[in-house]
Design brief:
The complex is a heterodimer of chains A (287) and B (242). Chain A starts with a helix and ends in an 11-residue tail after the last helix. Chain A is mainly α and 287 residues long. In chain A, helix 2 crosses helix 8 and helix 6 packs across helix 8. In chain B, helix 3 packs parallel to helix 6. Chain B has a domain of 164 residues: P-loop containing nucleotide triphosphate hydrolases (Rossmann fold). The radius of gyration of chain B is 17 Å and the shape is globular. In chain B, 48% of the residues are buried. In chain B, the strands form 2 sheets. In chain B, strands 6-7-8-3-9-10 form a 6-stranded mixed sheet, sandwiched between helices. A 4-stranded antiparallel sheet of chain B has the order 2-1-4-5, with helices on one face. Classes of the chains: A mainly alpha (287), B alpha/beta (242). At the A-B interface, helix 6 and helix 7 of A face helix 2 and helix 3 of B.
Chain lengths: 287, 242
């Protein structure tokens, strides 16, 4: 029972990681842009959300409604102003540019919000739970998992069925051939990054609700997103979701073994996957 | 009569390497022009320069008399110029239908008008209907080439550039693909066909240009040019005749 409980808690934790990982799956897995500032963007959005909540007395849902469009706009500007200048077959320029951006964002956040930890008041939602067969399931983690599943489903359908999704897949397969077919790759990339950061808007609200956030917390979130995408396999949205679950479950089981071992257990599983199946659990092997 | 597409003293370079030294060609409405020449003569470079894939001067390429040199590739497609690129360059990991649908999507986005539809393309290359759900990387070379041609046609071009569409294909498949060209021309689309096979190039075109080391060395009506003339232009003066 204890281990089954760990499994359930792991899946719920995986829901949170899936929200970080989806944007990463789109940017890293599909566009091959390494965005080191991914975690810092989550924290920045969280802090903005917390400031909105305190300034205007907003509840979590109104914060979400304000924050997601803002995140979409931030993503679009990020791609137009920075990433479109460095995107290409070589991943190094985007890595260096976003590494710089990451440091700049952390210092900017420190300047504005100081180093204090803050969280978003959830008006009780964060402490409610449901009992199912002797296992207590937190309402908030359940909502997080449901939202993560919905976002994954929506993103997967968008990539498969829409004009934008086809254009993005085409541009990531062969950017020059995509242009020869009438696609403006930079416009498509701007939309994709807008979507990726928009999803981080959701992650930011839930992250600030379930725990505290401080300006230096970004890099840890970045690692979880990277690990989830690589465990699941590059270029597959459901793969990133599954990778998040694997990461969440590994950590939850690790925590049961020893409270200090949880995060490390996740990293070990990641390394094992990387060593034995480098294309990821659901990725296609490179021929 | 102004040309649909023309180049004027077109210069192109890859870094320090100059690939084209003042190339002048023209293409008229409904015409098929062949571009022949040895490897490295600059044929593909010429097509890439027209498509905006290499930086060239504004006035060096005219489309319906309008200077378009150096225009972004996707804008060239919007202006009615499409290319079947060398090596096909299909979107791997996507099905035949999705590859074609990308072009349909973009043509719709840009409001491009033309007669090419999926059913019409299926008439031209029936195998594409059969293979609609197949991933492009598991098609044969000839089938991939048909997808590449189809993708270009669905951009609704008035000018179609074909870069070595026979490369690496069996003679039977080459005949099948070249048999489709007259039907494409019948829609009023003008064509530039880059072709290694001189015989094929002559039969598939009204006029031809022969290139050597980044320059045009011979031009004329395909039916009237002799093999001796081509031999000289192809290899340069002093070389033996084919």
């Amino acid at each position: 029972m204890e281990w089954f409980d760990a499994l359930v808690q792991g899946v719920l934790l995986g829901g949170m990681y899936a929200q970080y990982a989806l944007g990463m799956a789109l940017m890293f897995g599909v566009m091959r842009i390494v965005n080191i500032s991914h975690g810092d963007l989550v924290i920045l959005l969280s802090l903005i959300g917390i400031s909105f909540a305190t300034a205007w007395g907003l509840g979590p849902l109104p914060v979400l409604i304000v924050l997601v469009p803002l995140a979409v706009l931030m993503g679009w500007v990020l791609q137009k102003a920075v990433l479109n200048r460095v995107v290409g077959s070589d991943p190094l320029p985007s890595l260096i540019a976003t590494f710089g951006l990451s440091i700049a964002l952390q210092n900017l956040m420190l300047q504005i919000w100081s180093a204090n930890s803050r969280s978003l008041p959830g008006h009780g939602i964060e402490s409610q739970s449901i009992e199912i067969g002797g296992i207590y399931i937190g309402l908030l983690p359940l909502i997080v998992l449901a939202v993560a599943t919905g976002l994954t489903w929506g993103l997967d359908l968008t990539l498969k069925r829409t004009r934008f999704g086809r254009a993005l897949r085409a541009a990531s397969a062969d950017v020059e051939a995509a242009a020869m077919t009438g696609i403006n790759p930079r416009a498509v990339y701007a939309m994709a990054t807008a979507a990726a950061v928009g999803i981080l808007g959701f992650a930011a609200v839930f992250q600030a609700l379930r725990s505290t956030v401080a300006p230096a917390d970004g890099p840890a979130q970045l690692i979880y997103a990277f690990e989830a995408v690589i465990i699941g396999g590059m270029g597959t949205v459901w793969g990133a979701f599954a990778g998040s679950m694997v990461l969440g479950i590994s950590q939850a089981i690790g925590f049961r073994i020893d409270p200090g071992f949880g995060v490390l257990a996740g990293h070990i599983v990641f390394l094992v996957v990387l060593a034995t199946r480098p294309q990821g659990l659901f990725g296609k092997a490179l021929s | 009569m102004t040309a649909v597409l023309s180049t004027h003293a077109l210069l192109a370079r890859y870094g320090d390497f100059q690939a084209l030294y003042g190339v002048d060609i023209e293409l008229h409405q409904g015409e098929a022009v062949a571009l022949i020449g040895a490897n490295g003569a600059g044929k593909s470079t010429l097509l890439r320069s027209i498509m905006g894939l290499l930086p060239v001067g504004r006035e060096m390429v005219l489309l319906h008399g309008e200077p378009v040199g150096g225009t972004a590739t996707d804008r060239m497609v919007q202006k009615g110029v499409a290319i079947v690129p060398e090596g096909r360059r299909l979107f791997t990991g996507m099905s035949v239908e999705d590859n074609l649908r990308v072009a349909i999507d973009q043509a719709a986005r840009m409001g491009a008008k033309g007669g090419w539809t999926l059913p019409r393309l299926h008439q031209l290359f029936p195998i594409l209907r059969e293979k609609a759900r197949t991933q492009v990387q598991s098609l044969s070379g000839g089938q991939q080439q048909m997808v590449a041609i189809g993708r270009a046609l669905l951009c609704q071009p008035r000018v179609l550039l074909c870069d070595e569409i026979s490369l690496g294909l069996a003679p039977k498949v080459i005949r099948e693909i070249y048999a489709a060209l007259p039907e494409i021309r019948a829609t009023g689309t003008a064509m530039i066909v880059v072709e290694q096979d001189v015989g094929l190039a002559r039969t598939a075109s009204d006029r031809l240009y022969c290139m050597l080391e980044g320059r045009v060395t011979l031009t004329g009506r395909s039916a009237e040019i002799t093999r001796e003339q081509i031999g000289k232009a192809y290899f340069g003066a002093g070389h033996g005749v084919v």
